[in-house]
User: Fold this.
Amino acid sequence: MIVDRGRGVAIVNEALDPLDGDTVFGQRWGSGALIKLTPEELDALNEGQIIAVDAEGEYVVYLQRNAKSRDWVQPLLSESALAEDWLKPEEDMAWAYLQPVRSPLPSYAETAGDG
Assistant:
């Protein structure tokens, strides 16, 4: 768990019900609802946009990706999205011209043991 009390941000393993006791920030009130970001919202954060979150119907919290955050996140997200296309048979056919051509005749290494 990583807690930055000054900024009021923590990375935790699970959402805790604030009514069950203290949270990582001490005693809090509310439902402790978990808000899951969609892939579109994550993409928006990675593109520099800001996400507004309605917290408990009473407060507004804004989320923004730190420009100094790890640069490997976007390539990983992009790779998983592109992998859907990479695995299609059409992609194999499109790149087939780069595959080495196999001669219909046996190579020396294949026939050396026949003699």
